[in-house]
Amino acid sequence: MKTGLLLEGGAMRGLYTAGILDVFMEKGIKIDGIIGVSAGALFGMNYKSKQIGRVLRYNKKYARNKDYMGFYSLISTGDIMNREFCFNKIVNELDPVDFDTFKRTEVEFYAVVTNMETGKPEYIKIDDLKDKVQLEYLRASGSMPYVSKPVIIKGKKYLDGGISDSIPIEKIMSMGFDRVVVILTRPIEYRKKKSNEKIPQIYYRKYPKLVETINNRYKMYNEEVEKVIQLEKEKKIFVIRPSRTVGIKRIERDIYKIQEMYDLGKSDIQEKMDGLLEYLKE
Questions:
Q1: 69 closest CA partner among 13, 157, 143, 164
Q2: Separation of alpha carbons 143 and 9, rounded Å
Q3: pLDDT number for residue 134
Q4: Which residue(s) pair with 36 in the sheet?
Q5: Mean pLDDT (the chain, rounded)
Q6: Is 109 within 8 Å of 154 (Cβ atoms)?
């Protein structure tokens, strides 16, 4: 029996997911495959590298560092997330990824990226973070539109996977897992609203299919939420989502908010642990 795990993105709301995954590791809950979107990929990789507490630790430590994320990075590098600091210094020096464990752990890990030319999602298998190309795919998965430069890999341009497949429920259901656990970062009542269609038309005018995908994102997202709710009612999947809203910003510098989001993940999964264990036994 194989278990798949779907991790929604949401920038710093991903601390919710990090709290849950730390409990998974503490409890020895076995996952066979993961699909992570944006922050779901960037934070979820730590399950495969078996590094409990790493996500909370480096986010609290560097939240107020101008070289981490934010306006300074945006104006100085063109990326809201500083590539050198986030994907070199932190990864290799300041709070290193356990590359060997990541590669050795038998968990299939996929990051969702959006192809700017086609406007379609691509699901990239990541099994070696020492591979610079794979690390770039991981970076692309979390490269938010408007505030990130395109990530160019093998001649193709990519951005945040959440643009084209925010909650890849159909993809993970097609991958042959016997059980699927879904971690969302919004409460059950949340739905996206239609946004201003002219902004992407101006900003990404050279990529008409990407523009179309961005402008239809709210429909796609809401349809995926409804699909998750229906599958949950049918007991085909197990869903963990925030029990309340935390007023956390996409780029959050308040370490107390960061801690609150993480703690909510830990408390929510502890409340649902009996139900999860029962589901995983079936």
A1: 143
A2: 11
A3: 98
A4: 7, 111
A5: 97
A6: no
The backbone torsions φ and ψ at residue 142, rounded to the nearest 5 degrees and listed phi first, read -105, 15
pTM for this prediction: 0.96
Q: What pLDDT sits at residue 57?
A: 98
Q: Residues 252, 230: contact at Cβ < 8 Å?
A: no
Predicted local confidence at residue 191, as pLDDT: 97
Question: DSSP letters along 44-107, please?
Answer: HHHHHTT-TTHHHHHHHHHTT-TTTBSHHHHHHHS-SB-HHIIIIIIIIIIS---HHHHHHS--
Selection from 120, 129, 144, 118 nearest residue 90 by Cα = 129
Structure token digits, residue 227:
């699909």
pLDDT band at 105 (very low <50, low <70, confident <90, very high): very high
Q: Are 68 and 82 in contact (CB under 8 A)?
A: yes
Pairing of strands 108-115, 156-160: antiparallel
